[in-house]
Amino acid sequence: MAFYQFIKTQRLPSTVNEVWDFISSPSNLKEITPEHMGFIVTSKNGDEKMYPGMIITYKVSPILGIKLNWMTEITQVKDHEFFIDEQRIGPYSMWHHQHKIKVIEGGVLMTDIITYKPPMGIFGAFANSIFIKKQLEEIFDYRKISLEKRFGKFKP
Questions:
Q1: The pTM is what?
Q2: Where are the domains of the chain?
Q3: How far is CA 34 from CA 29, 40, 117, 142, 149, in A?
Q4: Is 50 helix (H, G, I), strand (E, B) or coil?
């Protein structure tokens, strides 16, 4: 069935080192995830920096407060440039999330590219059009505000 791609960019008035140190630590994910998602990192490696092969487990409540287990693997890392997480167990049939950062004039450009496939075939495609895509927008809108609180607003 259908695959979808969701892309978000954000400029931050910070250094690559500062942004990388923050985004490459699983323990910081809760800070940039809306509270209503009930997001909790359950793996014991939350204070470590990401590395290829790292497994991170979470509990998340994306729908009606129902707790789901989610497991991702960090499959690729290039320090201070990008990392990729892929779902191993969770709500999607497929989830591949690229986190990229690069130096730009006045700060850092962050780009998130999420390629995903909802479960349940045609029902998943319907769910994507009704709420999954909207929920991703809400999560990344929240993330944008959270990162601006931490690093400041970018002024071109």
A1: 0.92
A2: 4-151
A3: 10, 11, 22, 6, 14
A4: coil
- Residue 149: exposed, middle, or buried by beta-carbon count in 10 A (0-12, 13-18, 19+)? exposed
Residue 40 and residue 68 in contact, taking contact as beta carbons nearer than 8 Å: no
Place of tokens 């954000």: 10
Q: How many CB atoms lie within 10 A of CB 74?
A: 20
Q: Going residue by residue through the chain, which has 156 residues, state the pLDDT in tens, using 9 for 90 and above.
A: 589 999 999 999 999 999 999 999 998 999 999 998 889 999 987 678 899 999 999 999 877 778 889 999 999 999 999 999 999 999 999 999 999 999 999 999 999 999 999 988 888 888 889 989 999 999 999 999 999 999 999 987
Give alpha helix (H) positions in the chain. Answer: 16-23, 121-127, 133-151
Tokens, residue 119: 């479960």
Q: Which CATH architecture has domain 4-151?
A: 2-Layer Sandwich (3.30)
CA distance 8 to 17: 21
Q: How far is CA 126 from CA 1, 2, 65, 99, 122, in A?
A: 11, 10, 21, 27, 6
Residue 7 contacts residue 96 (beta carbons within 8 Å): no
